[in-house]
Write a structure and sequence with these properties.
The chain is mostly helical. The chain has helices spanning 2-21, 27-120, 122-130, 135-242, 246-251, 255-264, 267-281, 286-300, 309-313, 320-324, 326-333, 337-347, and strands at 358-360, 370-372, 375-377. The radius of gyration is 50 Å and the shape is rod-shaped.
């Protein structure tokens, strides 16, 4: 029983290996392209995520940069206020110094006057009073002496009151200055924090940008690989077509289908055809653009391909811009005017070449076909 089981297993393995190695050769290009397309789709998905992250980082950077700018303006404003406040304090200090000098001067003058009146010439006041001619004159002279004394006291009091006011003002200004300095210190700390966050954000942007560049390079590598694989498949199909006679090729065109497409095409058909023309021949001559459009329409009329413009364009592994996603981008924004005109002319009957395939011409390997610009059509 065990021997029979081992024999059965061995036979199944041999059959599987035989089937694998006997698969038709044309299946391999499709399998390879499918694997590469999966890789490209994965990279494009990662690229989309990286670009979304980059957009968020750019927004975050812009917000932080605005905050840093506002913080700098706040610090500058506070510095201006501090300088102005310090200037006010310096001015008050100068006034206090002047008042102190004035008080000292007034005090010295008063002492000198008192000394003169009471010490050096003590009879002066008495003589002044005794010289009065009448009681009224005596009162007047007495009032005069009192006024001199009152003036001295009043002047000293005014000066003292003024210097007290100035010192109170200085104290208030110093308090306001200290508050401004504290606000500036807080603003400086906030600015330092924001600058650090901004630097971190810039580092993240740079890292993410490098990741985007790496992903784009890898996506381009996969796109080029898909294009090469498609090109190799097209060349094999071209060789198969060249082995058929011209009448055979003509029999494949369904004129009724072609007439139907040319007669009843929609705006969406025009948009899709214009988009694939721009992707494949945007840098080519007008004839080259129309030739690409003609290939698409010729395929629609050929029963070996899909019977609609969308079916032909979206057929697997036929147009590399569809696989790479560039076609979807152009279709979404709309093709340029010249490519749109070429699409309209082709769908109105201007089929300028009887071909089903085209690719970038390579003189080293491409034999036959019709060369228009950078492309060979067959």
């Amino acid at each position: 029983m065990k021997l029979r089981t081992r024999n059965f297993t061995a036979i199944m393995l041999i059959l599987c290996m035989t089937v694998f190695f006997c698969l038709p050769a044309y299946i391999y290009p499709y399998r390879l392209m499918a694997d590469t397309q999966d890789d490209l789709d994965a990279v494009n998905k990662e690229l989309e995520e990286l670009k979304n992250k980059q957009s968020e980082l750019d927004s975050q950077f812009s917000d932080l940069n605005n905050k840093v700018t506002s913080s700098g303006e706040k610090i500058a404003s506070l510095e201006e206020q501090i300088n102005s406040k310090q200037s006010d304090i310096d001015s008050v200090n100068a006034d206090i110094s002047d008042m102190e000098i004035e008080i000292s001067h007034q005090y010295d003058t008063m002492k000198l006057r008192i000394r003169y009146m009471y010490e050096n010439d003590s009879n002066t006041i008495l003589a002044t009073l005794l010289s009065a001619q009448s009681l009224s004159d005596l009162l007047t002279k007495t009032e005069y002496v009192r006024q001199i004394s009152d003036y001295d006291h009043k002047k000293m009091q005014e000066l003292n009151d003024l210097i007290v006011t100035l010192r109170d003002t200085k104290e208030q200004l110093q308090s306001e200055l200290d508050e401004l300095v504290a606000l500036k210190d807080d603003a400086a700390k906030e600015a330092a924090t924001l600058s650090s966050l901004l630097e971190q954000c810039q580092t993240q942007i740079d890292t993410n940008s490098q990741s985007i560049s790496d992903a784009e390079a890898l996506a381009l590598e996969y796109e080029q690989k898909i294009q090469q694989e498609m090109l190799e498949r097209q060349r094999r199909e071209m060789e198969a077509l060249n082995s058929q006679n011209s009448s055979d090729n003509a029999s494949h065109i369904d004129q009724n289908v072609l007439d139907e497409v040319l007669k009843n095409h929609s705006e969406q058909d025009v948009a899709m055809l214009a988009a694939i023309i721009e992707c494949e021949a945007g840098n080519q001559s007008y004839e080259g653009k129309c030739a690409v459009g003609s290939v698409v329409v010729n395929r629609v009329a050929d029963p070996r391909f899909a019977n609609s413009i969308s079916g032909v364009i979206y057929a697997p592994y036929q147009f590399s811009p569809v696989a790479s996603g560039r076609f979807a981008i152009v279709l979404a924004r709309g093709a340029n005017a010249e490519c749109t005109k070429a699409a309209v002319d082709v769908l109105n009957g201007y089929i300028n070449i009887n071909a089903l395939y085209f690719h970038v011409y390579n003189s080293a390997v491409d034999k036959g076909g019709t060369i228009i610009g950078d492309h060979v059509f067959y």
